[in-house]
Amino acid sequence: MLTRAWTRLGLPLVGLAVAVGLWSLGVSALEKSTPIGAAFAPLPTVLALRELVTGSDIWLHVLLSLQRVGVGLGLAIVIGVPLGVLVAMSKSFSGAAMPLFQLLRMVSPLSWMPIAVMVLGVGNAPVYFLLAFAAVWPIMLNTAAGVARLDPNWLLLARSLSATRSEIVFKVILPGITADILTGVRLAIGIIWIVLVPAEMLGVSAGLGYFILDTRDRLAYSELMAAIVLIGILGFLLDYLARAAHARWLHLKR
Hints:
By secondary structure, the chain is mainly α. The protein folds into two domains: 1-33; 41-253, Orthogonal Bundle (MetI-like fold). It contains eleven helices and no strands. It has helices at 2-33, 42-54, 57-89, 91-105, 113-120, 124-149, 152-160, 165-176, 178-199, 208-217, 221-253. 29% of the residues are buried. The mean pLDDT is 85.
């Protein structure tokens, strides 16, 4: 029992303590050449973080960012799951489209920022596009891998019972690959959360990325560091929820 508690709580706390220690040493070294570096130290950051989370302004930025994450992820799921099923079920489509998909997948989503703003204008639309573009590939590839791993006898049985193509997809394929889709969603959330902040630094007036720029312009460096820590905590919680959903599905499936 003690060993399990140490593994689940003790070791992570030790890792965090080591990280904070290295953080403090790094700031101390930075102060020698840049006195303003003291504002990035752990203690001022914790004090600024406490003020942030007890205020109301930061939560407006958080809610807007989470809304953009939800919309971008939803678009990626709506696009990526059908594409993944089609890639796995049609050799002709896979042969024609996969080279293009692999090429696009290797293009950084942030490189599309100038074109997205030029075509879609400023505001939420280009951010939604960038997030969906970043998230669609892991969802599509995991969906295709899930379909490829399905037992062919399931599909043969469905066809022998005169199931239509839509019935095969919605009643056989999608339930059978839900775990793979959830894995893709978890990977997509991690990518979206990384792309979100720089995407919000262009053309929007609220959100965590905008807040980072605002703290820089106000020279509120402790607040800036606190916002970075908050972004990390929120990203960890999103990943935890995605892992919990995946584990819950596997438990129900068993």
